[in-house]
Amino acid sequence: MAKAWTRWQDWAEVVIGVLVLLSPLVVETTTGAMWTMIVLGALIAIDGLASLAMPGMVYGEWFQIVLGALLFISPWVMGYSDLTAASWISWVAGVLTVAAGAMALPLANAAHGGRIAGTA
Predict the structure, then answer these.
(1) Whole-number percent of the chain with pLDDT over 70
(2) What is the pLDDT of residues 28-77, one digit of tens each?
(3) C-alpha distances in angstroms, 4 versus 13, 18, 56, 59?
(4) Separation CA 34–CA 28 (nearest Å)
(5) Cα–Cα distances in Å, from 117 out to 85, 86, 108, 114?
(6) What is the CA radius of gyration of the chain?
């Protein structure tokens, strides 16, 4: 069984979420961009913490992948693609969130099944 609070991918998700959450403090945003980044950043960080506490929670990694995809498309959907810094933060953090969730998915599946990742 996987130990709680040890998976680096989930720690990365927490850090990414907090950075996105705080980024409107240092980059120019509109009201829509600011709230999009705050809400998605908070959800990414909270889900990362939940995955750290419960390493066998497979749906948490899928949720993380969806949140990363939403963050990636948010500059176009929410209309802030003209704000270069906010857009790049969303694009890079979105890709990193999807990657971290995808890398943690096999580990979460293994923990859910009660076995060590990489074994049958």
Answers:
(1) 93
(2) 999 999 999 999 999 999 999 999 999 989 999 999 999 999 999 999 99
(3) 15, 20, 9, 16
(4) 9
(5) 38, 37, 8, 9
(6) 15
7 vs 25, 49, 57, CA distance in Å?
29, 11, 12
Q: How far is Cα 109 from Cα 115, in angstroms, rounded to an integer? A: 9
Name the nearest CA neighbour of 100 among 61, 57, 69: 61
Contact 53, 5 (CB under 8 A): yes
pTM: 0.91
Which residue's structure tokens are 């929410």? 78
What amino acid occupies position 102? A
Residue 68, token pair as written in the block: 């990363």
Residues 6+ apart with CB under 8 A from 55: 2, 3, 4, 6, 7, 10, 107, 108, 111
Determine the Cα–Cα distance for residues 111 and 34; give it in Å rounded to an integer: 36
